[in-house]
């Protein structure tokens, strides 16, 4: 499943990176490599998306290409409320999604545009957002592979999703009685009810991690069946038209024999 949303989309300039979401480089699976994952300390459920950043370092002399894999452990937050999009400066970066229980893995379909060398890093970025109203905890893990799918290093970071606080203000009771006149003879007007302000909608959303519902899975077979019936009807129409044309040609053919006058 490829997430393109979609939508794709530019990085939010206002996304702040919290210090609590920054991890030290993980111990390298291949000596000489490390991954530093930086995540926002908190997300607001139903709020704007923020950026998750992974930086791969190397102290080896040989240069390598890198492929990223992001593992999202939902925990107390359902996967269908999490939106993640991998992106580069040129736009959305294609990934493949695998879901196993409450864990989703996004793997880059191709190698990162950058090249990992000594004193030169490679950076992977993901746009992350949460829908709904409830909060919870989510953990992210980033793995860096080379062009031979060898795991170079990995790093992880946890974040907290804060829920939306429901606020309600008392509304004045409405009666059918007409307003009483004042001493001056003027009627008092009841204050107009103010319209409730809804929760701010996020300005950016990323691709959903949960797979599509079963109803959407019926769209493909339905289109195939409809296409088969369309072509059968077209063939039948062409066949009837050919028969009609042949009959018309036979009717218009003049007799070739000669007849003597009586």
UniProtKB/TrEMBL annotation:
<keyword id="KW-0732">Signal</keyword>
<feature type="transmembrane region" description="Helical">
    <location>
        <begin position="218"/>
        <end position="240"/>
    </location>
</feature>
<keyword id="KW-0812">Transmembrane</keyword>
<feature type="signal peptide">
    <location>
        <begin position="1"/>
        <end position="18"/>
    </location>
</feature>
<feature type="compositionally biased region" description="Low complexity">
    <location>
        <begin position="166"/>
        <end position="182"/>
    </location>
</feature>
<keyword id="KW-0472">Membrane</keyword>
<keyword id="KW-1133">Transmembrane helix</keyword>
<feature type="region of interest" description="Disordered">
    <location>
        <begin position="154"/>
        <end position="213"/>
    </location>
</feature>
<feature type="compositionally biased region" description="Acidic residues">
    <location>
        <begin position="183"/>
        <end position="192"/>
    </location>
</feature>
<protein>
    <submittedName>
        <fullName>Uncharacterized protein</fullName>
    </submittedName>
</protein>
């Amino acid at each position: 499943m490829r997430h393109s949303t979609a939508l794709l989309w530019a990085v939010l300039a206002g996304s702040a990176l919290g210090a609590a979401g920054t991890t030290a480089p993980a111990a390298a699976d291949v000596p000489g490599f490390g991954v530093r994952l930086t995540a926002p300390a908190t997300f607001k459920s139903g709020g704007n998306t923020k950026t998750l950043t992974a930086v791969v370092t190397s102290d080896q002399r040989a240069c390598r290409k890198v492929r990223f894999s992001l593992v999202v452990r939902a925990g107390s937050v359902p996967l269908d409320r999490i939106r993640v999009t991998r992106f580069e400066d040129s736009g959305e970066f294609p990934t493949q999604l695998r879901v196993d229980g409450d864990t989703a893995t996004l793997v880059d379909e191709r190698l990162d545009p950058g090249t990992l060398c000594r004193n030169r890093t490679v950076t992977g970025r993901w746009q992350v957002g949460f829908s709904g109203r409830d909060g919870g905890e989510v953990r992210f893990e980033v793995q860096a592979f080379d062009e031979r799918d060898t795991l170079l290093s990995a790093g992880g970071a946890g974040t907290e999703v804060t829920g939306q606080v429901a606020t309600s203000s008392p509304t004045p009771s409405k009666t059918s009685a007409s307003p009483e006149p004042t001493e001056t003879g003027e009627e008092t007007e009841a204050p107009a009810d103010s319209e409730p302000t809804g929760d701010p909608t996020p300005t950016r959303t990323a691709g959903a991690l949960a797979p599509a519902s079963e109803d959407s899975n019926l769209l493909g077979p339905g289109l195939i069946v409809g296409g088969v019936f369309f072509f059968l009807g077209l063939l039948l129409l062409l066949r009837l038209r050919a028969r009609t044309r042949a009959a018309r040609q036979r009717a218009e053919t003049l007799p070739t024999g000669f007849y003597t006058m009586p």
